[in-house]
Amino acid sequence: MKSYSLLLFVLLSSLYCSTSSALTSKAFIQCLTAQYSEDSATISQVIYTPKNSSYNSVLDFSIQNLRFASSSRTKPAVIVTPVHESQIQTVLYCAKKHNIQIRIRAGGHDFEGLSYSTVSPIEFVMIDMINFRSVDVDVASGTAWVGSGASLGELDYRIAEKSSTYGFPGGFWATVCTGGFLGGGGYGPLKRKYGLGADNVIDARFMDVNGRILDKESMGEDLFWAIRGGIASNFGIVIAWKVKLVAVPKIVTVFAVRRTLEQNGTVLLHKWQTVAPKLDRDLYLRTSITTVTLDGIRTVQISFEALFLGRADRLLLLMKESFPELGLVTEDYMEMSWIKSVLFFAEGSAFTLDESIEVLLNRSAFPKQYFKGKSDYVKVPIPIEGLEGLWERYFQVDDGAIIIDMSPYGGKMYEISESALPYPHRAGNLYMMFIGVMWDANTTVAEQNRRLDFSRSLYSYLGSYVSKNPREAYANYVDLDLGVGTTYKEASKWGTRYFKDNFKRLVQVKTAVDPYNFFKHEQSIPTFTKISDM
Prior knowledge:
Blueprint: H1 2-35, H2 40-44, E1 47-48, H3 55-61, E2 78-80, H4 85-97, E3 101-105, E4 124-128, E5 135-138, E6 143-147, H5 152-162, E7 166-167, H6 178-183, H7 191-194, E8 201-207, E9 213-214, H8 216-219, H9 221-227, E10 237-244, E11 246-247, E12 252-260, H10 265-275, E13 283-294, E14 297-308, H11 312-322, E15 334-336, H12 338-349, E16 370-378, H13 384-394, E17 402-408, E18 431-439, H14 445-462, H15 488-499, H16 502-513
Parallel strand pairs: 2-4, 3-4
Antiparallel strand pairs: 1-2, 5-6, 6-10, 7-11, 8-9, 8-10, 12-14, 12-15, 13-14, 13-17, 16-18, 17-18
């Protein structure tokens, strides 16, 4: 009888929550249309609910991690794709009035899908910034205004339209949008020369919780500091960024060579750990590690991929001097324009150099994946025996199921203080690691779960070789394995890993600009609720 009563209670509660949610979202939409009573058709064109035939296509378009495309996660009750700032202001007003949460999506690359889904069954509205994608390049001042919904590929393309000697320190994935990329720091192949993307942000157009539109001057030093690396959506909505362009030569040089364990790969990687951070800052040399089967033999393959801001003849001399063991020959080097190098690295080199650079404008041309990602920072070289233990674990999963990317530090990254921006991972780091497990649409649920468990086991193994106290992590590679919660104590579990000593300042800024914690998700910056926390 007791179990029957409990079941009835759960069913009635679920029905109540479902009905309550439907009523809340209906009231929210009515609020939106009421604000546009003289032009209701305009606002109705940017509102989508699950009843609309276009809802799924709008939602799915920017889901980059297919792991969450059909998951049991809660999806938005309402999607709004605003085309004017005033529409965003109205969304904020109505969401607060009806106590409904919002999530903000730019490019949809967040690792845990938190910009378009929730872990807990709560009702929320998603603001999709896809229409805020204008790019205005001013070559004379060496700056550009870029909408938060514009992709890095679009930004690079528009810069190249105006100049062959300007670029921007963007990332490797052309479909990542500036809203999330710059809001979390943002790194790429120019970081050793010019620092992070966020290091090159000089102004912003930002909407706070009250719908006020602010710039660098009016928002104040603390908030401008916080939105450049502290995950901007914790504090409000970035409409656009003003960025400083950086000088690039008309011709750059790239290479990508692969070495297996049988080709001395372990020794080469061991040396890479100390060589790559000390190279000329014009040279970025990263590694990407996976397993392959060659001639029937399974092995670990290490790809050494480089961007050099100069011609091949100079790079040849640099590599012979600093890393002759890699055994590069003239044929390994490829000279090209800066914009072609963007395509070379885009989406894991998914394209050939014959591809037109116009593909950077086509978000649908880039592959999507099923994956779980984690991050680490390495301050002391992993010894040979540590790498060999890593290879043993690599062989526990199928080819292509695990990938580790290692991105070197040094150069400009060592010259910027840990507190200059919320992103604290600067001097003292040899390199950063991305640890990812992948699968495809045909992978069984059991195998997906096995790979997720494997990623956690591998992460545990690496704990002996990476940063400690705290074990650092990259905020843009959000990882719910580090914890969830809303209090300062709960958030400190991951907050100090992402931001180190900057975390407390971020909470202070959050408390000042969003005291009622309107902008929140499962792993967002909390507010101080007790004076003793401050």
